[in-house]
Amino acid sequence: MEESALMSNAGDESEEDLELNIDEGEDINFTYGWPPLVCCFGAAQLAFVPSGRPANRLVDYEINERMKGARWAPEKIVRAPGSCAGNVALALARLGGKVAFMGKLGDDDYGQAMLCYLNVNNVQTRSVQIDKKRPTAMSQMKISKRGRLRMTNLKSCAEDSLSKSEINIDVLKEAKMFYFSTHSLLDRNMRSTSLRAIKISKKLGGIIFYDVNLPLPLWQSDEETKMFIQEAWNLANVIEVTKQELEFLCGIKPTEEFDTKNNVSSKFVHYDPDVVAPIWHENLKALFVPNGTSKIHYYTKEQNGAVHGMEMASLQVQTCGSTTYFCLC
């Protein structure tokens, strides 16, 4: 996607004041049970990824090397559930959470497989729409000569065709937290639908969690990127950005070599609150900055600090998603 097209998508959004006919009768929240429902909004993709590749930013490389032979079908390409929203929904459900996925799938083999996978893993699919004309979104990831992942996406696809009229209001009424990522803002139609769903959830009392997860086209200019994500950023109550995204948005020149085994101290620095102050806003309650498996940095209005991560060798292929989100829920 071209940079100019991204900025055009951002500039064309002119949402009117949101008016909802909310029933002011008896409060029935107690009927929803525990744990509270989380709505994960966005794409549920199938990613064809090379298995056996450990995550970057590791602290203990030896443990991952020892477990390399235990991974299923190393050196091969495997089909795995992908996307930010899809992975968060699946992982949260596996941890015992109650989660509903809201998005759109194609009426094809991949879409049916993804729908089945969500249901088998106890993710509610009552707010999933099926598109009979467009295919299910897919991502293909390749390892470059330098060992980094390169991803290509199938466009146009069902995930970008969710309309405002297909937003499930009943799920948003029940959900106490609404999760989304920047990927939902890239397509013009999906951006409009995403912002509508965010505003509905916010008006219904939901906590808005924004997993920034900047895609490649938005790494060209920090100023244009901030303009593009500004509306979603200002609506969020909780935001997660990686250390690299924080440095990019704050105009900090990184001092480290990314994706290397050189664990120099600059990789683990905790920035002062004054550094993040320019991107703070009045609706924001917490800002989380995960840094690989080493630390998760946190910022609130009153406090800031970092907690150490926990590292173990993964035996299952995983693409992307928010680890901070699981801790909150």
From TrEMBL:
A GO molecular-function annotation: kinase activity
| Alphabetical list of InterPro entries matching this protein | PfkB_Carbo_kinase (IPR050306), PfkB_dom (IPR011611), Ribokinase-like (IPR029056)
Q: Which residues does the UniProt record annotate as the domain Carbohydrate kinase PfkB? A: 73-256
SUPFAM superfamilies in the record, alphabetically? Answer: Ribokinase-like (SSF53613)
| Cellular component per GO, a single term | chloroplast nucleoid
What Gene3D superfamilies does the entry give? Answer: 3.40.1190.20
Name the Gene Ontology biological process terms.
chloroplast organization; etioplast organization; plastid transcription
Q: Keywords on this record?
A: Kinase, Transferase
Question: Pfam families in the record, alphabetically?
Answer: PfkB
Q: Which family does it belong to?
A: Belongs to the carbohydrate kinase PfkB family.
Q: What is this protein called?
A: Fructokinase-like 2
Record the organism: Hibiscus syriacus
Q: What is the lineage of its organism?
A: Eukaryota, Viridiplantae, Streptophyta, Embryophyta, Tracheophyta
